[in-house]
Each structure stands twice: as C-alpha cells, then as structure tokens.
Specification:
alpha+beta, Creatine Amidinohydrolase, 4-stranded antiparallel beta sheet, 5 helices, 25% strand
C-alpha cells in the first residue's frame, strides 16, 4: 500500500517543485543554436545551489551532471556534453532538487530555433498527453487510468509511448512507489489515494516505440532514430482533481524562451 503524504510533506514537496520549475525556465533562457548542453547543466546547477537546494541528479547512481540533456533521438538520461545545439534540434531537460529533505523533479522539451512541423506536433502532443494524464490522477482511480489517458491520446496522432520507462512516486526519495506507466488499461494498476505525490512523465517517440540503451549505460535512444519528447510534472492526487506542484508557467510566460 502506498502511504499518502501529510500536508506538511506536501508543502515541502511544493517548495522543491517551485525551485525545479524556475530552474527549468533558467535553462530555457539559454537554449539556442550554438550553446552546448554542458552549459545548460551549469546554468541549472548554479540556480539550484543559489536557491539553497542540492541538484539531486548529480552523483545519483553515478550520474555525472545536474541535468539530463537528451537531444533529438535520445528519449531520456542524456549526458550534458560539448555537443553544440543546432537549429532544428530538440533537447529534453530533466532536473531534480533535494531541499529540506524532500525531492523535486520535472522535465521539459525545448525546441532549438525553428523545428519542422512533425517535431512541433510531437512536442505539442506529448505535453498535451501529460495534462490528459494529470486529469486522470484523482483519488479512487488507478495508475492504469493515467496510462490509458496518455497512451490513447498519443497513439491517436500516430506517435508511440515508450513502455520501458515510467513515472513514479516522490518524497524523501527521488523515486518512490508507485510506478506510473504511460500506457495501460482503465481500472487496472495501483489505487490512487488522496495525498499521494507522483510524477507523471510521458516519453513519446515520433516513430516506433522501440528503444535501446546507450553503451554508457544511461542514455535511452529510439531504435529507429526518430525524435522523442519528454515532459514531466509533479502532482498530488486529490478527490476530484490533481493538484499540480510543479508548473511550466515560468517557461511559457517568459517571452525570452522559445517553447
């Protein structure tokens, strides 16, 4: 059984979520052709530390950076590097914080300059599927209801949901139960209860759903080399609705950011 969070714990998760949300926006301000993904990581780490938090990805199970920077066909867990972003690329930035003993986690896929129409649709559909999943994250439902909402929406556009990776609970640990798959059947899976804190994070491929693990043991690539997108928000399950803790507002209300 998954233990719901107390309101005091949720308040601490909310503080983390706001730092994470603002950190993503700081990264978004510097996403542009000619910028390295290593610079994106430095910007995120500086912002997180300046706000009194710890970049929780850095050193997690040996991960070498403050963010995951996943470019084009990399679905998740890409290493920041000296790769220089090009016009037409997309880069998924996933980052986390540890603050006052609790965790924050969120992700956003940024277009770099101008992207083609199919890629723009991939981004829009993946983000919209996240909100479909959030709508299903209500007390009394199950994780399968979230997965079904995401999968059915994504597949209606001819895209594919990655099945080897999923969302998760969050709290004192970055990854807690329950797992939150992005596919499933309505009425199946873990019961959702009031106060449960979860991260919903659709990972969607423009082509087939196949993926493979890079030789570095971290980066997950699409098998057919098509682009992939990834968006993630932290929410609390409530009766009749889900309460968003993290937000994309800091990104999407900033005129300096291309989203």
């Amino acid at each position: 059984m998954v233990k719901p969070k107390t309101e005091e714990e949720i308040a601490l998760l909310r503080e983390n979520a706001i730092i994470v949300s603002k950190a993503l926006a700081e990264v978004g301000k510097v996403v542009a052709p000619g910028v390295t993904t290593a610079k994106l990581s430095r910007v995120a780490e500086d912002f997180i530390r300046d706000n009194g938090a710890i970049p929780s990805f850095l050193g997690f199970e040996g991960f070498p950076a403050a963010i995951c920077a996943s470019v084009n066909d990399v679905v998740v867990h890409g290493f920041p590097s000296d790769y220089v972003l090009k016009d037409g690329d997309i880069v998924s930035v996933d980052l986390g914080t540890l603050y006052k003993g609790y965790n924050g986690d969120s992700a956003y896929t940024f277009p770099v300059g101008e992207v083609d129409a199919k890629t723009r649709t991939l981004l829009d559909v993946t983000k919209a599927s996240l909100y479909k999943g959030i709508e299903a994250a209500v007390a009394g439902a199950r994780t399968g209801d979230i997965g079904y909402a995401v999968q059915s929406y994504v597949e209606s556009f001819g895209f594919s949901v990655v099945r080897e990776l999923e969302g998760h609970g969050i709290g004192r640990e970055m990854h807690e139960v329950p797992g939150v798959p992005n596919f499933g059947r309505r009425g199946k899976g873990t019961h959702l209860v009031d106060g449960m804190a979860i991260c919903i994070e659709p990972m969607v491929n423009a082509g087939g759903r196949g993926v493979y693990l890079d030789r570095n043991g971290w980066a997950v690539h699409t098998s057919d080399k098509c682009n992939a997108a990834h968006y993630e928000l932290t929410v609390v399950v409530r009766k009749g609705h889900a309460e968003q803790l993290s937000t994309f507002d800091f990104i999407e209300k900033d005129p300096k950011i291309n989203f």
